[in-house]
Design a protein that fits this description.
With 344 residues, the protein is of the alpha/beta class. The chain has twelve helices and twelve strands. The chain has one domain: Alpha-Beta Barrel (TIM Barrel), CATH 3.20.20. The strands form three sheets. It has an eight-stranded parallel beta sheet, covered by helices on one side. The protein has a two-stranded antiparallel sheet with strand order 1-2. The chain has a two-stranded antiparallel ribbon with strand order 6-7. Helix 3 packs across helix 4 and helix 4 crosses helix 5.
């Protein structure tokens, strides 16, 4: 049995398991929702294995993912696990809108508390940044929710370095969630150093490249048509880019074979090795894959092996953008100055 340790996430006192569990794919994004009994069993297996940090969002479903997590964790000791959820993407009549205005922040939090069937959210992220609302206004409302005991810690997702700094000046940000894996490394130049300078923890989502670093191009053979990875919003998975990118997987797979581990474990071990302030949250819907993922904690990497892995997926080696046009990322997350809101 792999021993899953604990790490401090940020400098405000939050502790989580060294690896978390991303729950999105259980009900949203990657094909049809999976059978609820199976997902409840997986979540409870995770707790028994020592993984106590669970990541969801109100937009996953929408809403069904939070309800699932609330059911799965009901009846246990609430202090034994850490719930992270997100707000900020509102769907009305099938059309998405990013919101960070105070009234919406509060209403979203109240709704998530009900769905999760809990009285306090451990880590509450702004899922995407509303570029119409000064970040100080959004975080000001989150600060009030902390003071009321409805949330413990504040997080941001897909936020630029300047947005993180402005937010942190209003209330300490505990964690920034960002996409970080062997083939998604654009955060290393400015965002990761900013987090470390400010004492903010890093939560790495899609650390397995949405499954690409687990099984390579063959991943797409078994995906349903409604799987997000088949859409135009993820250019790296489009056929014209996939053929080029498969060489990255082949090199990772070859190195994993030599080390006696799986490519998933090798890719996850690389993320773990990037610092003791980093918590990857690989998602899965199968217990055997979950067990394989926590097995990454046993994989040791030398500095030479780290460098070799990074050479496989240098920035210019990956073909296709991380997200397609129309998808909000940290690159377009700057907000207006606070003075503009006061004048409005």
């Amino acid at each position: 049995m792999v021993k899953v340790g604990r790490i401090k996430l940020g400098s405000q006192g939050m502790e989580v398991s060294t690896q978390g569990l991303g729950c999105m794919g259980m009900t949203f994004g990657y094909g049809p929702p999976k059978p609820e009994p199976d997902m409840v069993a997986l979540i409870r297996h995770a707790v028994e294995s020592g993984v106590t940090f669970f990541d969801t969002s109100d937009v996953y479903g929408p809403h069904t993912n939070e309800i699932l997590l609330g059911k799965a964790l009901k009846g246990g000791t609430r202090e034994k696990f850490e719930l992270a959820t997100k707000f900020g993407i509102s769907y009305v009549d099938g059309k998405g809108e990013i919101r960070g205005d105070p009234a919406y922040v509060r209403a979203a939090c109240e709704a998530s508390l009900k769905r999760l069937d809990t009285d306090c959210i451990d880590l509450y992220y702004q899922h995407r940044i509303d570029t119409r609302v000064p970040i100080e206004v959004t975080v000001g409302e989150l600060k009030e929710l902390v003071e009321e005991g409805k949330i413990k810690y504040i997080g941001l997702s897909e936020a630029s370095a300047s947005t993180i700094r402005r937010a942190h000046a209003v209330h300490p940000i505990t964690a920034v969630q960002l996409e970080w894996s062997l083939w998604s490394r654009d955060v290393e130049e400015e965002i990761v150093p900013t987090c470390r300078e400010l004492g903010i923890g890093i939560v790495a989502y899609s650390p397995l490249g949405r499954g690409f670093l687990s099984s390579g191009p063959k991943l797409l053979e078994n995906l349903t048509q409604d799987d997000f990875r088949k859409s135009q919003y993820l250019p790296r998975f489009q056929p014209e880019n996939l053929e080029h990118n498969k060489t990255i997987f082949e090199k990772v797979n070859e190195m994993a074979t030599k080390k006696g581990c799986t490519p998933s474990q090798l890719a996850l071990a690389w993320v773990h090795r990037r610092g003791n302030d980093v918590c990857p949250i690989p998602g899965t819907t199968k217990i055997e894959n979950f067990d394989q993922n926590i097995g990454a904690l046993l994989v040791k990497l030398t500095p030479e092996e780290m460098a070799q892995l990074e050479s496989f997926a240098a920035t210019d080696a990956v073909k296709g953008d991380r997200y397609g046009s129309g998808m909000a990322t940290w690159k377009d997350s700057d907000t207006p100055p606070l003075s503009s809101w006061k004048a409005a």
